[in-house]
Amino acid sequence: LEAALPDKAGWAAEEGTLAHAICELKLTRAFTDRNMTERTYKGRLKKLQEQDGYDPEMEHVTDEYVEYVKELAFSMPAAPTVMIEKRLDYGAWAKGGFGTGDCVMLQGNCLHIVDFKYGKGVPVAAEGNPQLALYALGAIAEFGFIYQVERIFLHIVQPRINNTSSWETSRRAIEIWGDYVRERAELAYDGRGEFMQGKWCDSCFCKIAGTCRCRADTNLALMDDALDPVSGKPREAAELS
């Protein structure tokens, strides 16, 4: 249903894209391009700062994210493999599915997926986060034969609302959940899934949330509690739950 609707990136999405680009530059300098000169770094940063949507707040917000990643890396017993803005393909579980991991770290039997959230409208939690769990599946698919991953850590860094969290799970648990995803993704891909109203209508920014019949029927059903079953008139406000 969304396929026929265009992507309309608002100013918040554009801000987030720019903030992510600044994060990528700073992490690249810290981890994957140690030979980057100060002049090169400042030149690239200046170009980003000149883009529409840039706000000086982005500097300390992105610094906070970078410091989190650095502390995480330095806390490990040995230097981790660090990948920045890494494409992760989880098509084996959801046909055509892929995403971009802001920062992926592998060290020993541990996999870390770190996600930077610039937005401040919807708080995001690491525990049970399906986006990051899908990214973990993609990372396992690509690197699982090289690294004997057993422990998986999901991290959310959302500095503008002081919301940072992490959650540990196991490879086995993620793979079992992946089987659950695969069954439902096949239904969705074939258009055989059931429409359901839920918090995801807003938090996942569904394009048809404002015109979805299922969502309308679910919300309009709330009127049953607001009307007197005999008279059909609105109940007294004090009686509403």
- Percent of residues in helices comes to 40-55%
- End-to-end gap: 35 Å
How many strands, what sense, and barrel or not for the largest sheet?
5 strands, mixed
The number of strands is 5
Radius of gyration, rounded?
22 Å
Beta-strand portion reads: 15-25%
Q: Structural class, judged by helices and strands?
A: alpha+beta
Report the mean per-residue pLDDT as an integer. Answer: 92
Shape: globular
Uncertain regions: pLDDT < 50 for 5+ in a row?
none
Order of H and E elements: HHHEEEHEEHHHH
Strand order of the largest sheet: 1-2-3-4-5
Number of helices: 8
Summed up:
The protein has 241 residues and is α+β, with helices and mostly antiparallel strands. It has 8 helices and 5 strands; from the N terminus they run H-H-H-E-E-E-H-E-E-H-H-H-H. The chain has helices at residues 11-32, 38-49, 57-74, 130-143, 171-189, 200-203, 213-220, 223-226, and strands spanning 81-89, 98-107, 110-116, 151-158, 163-170.
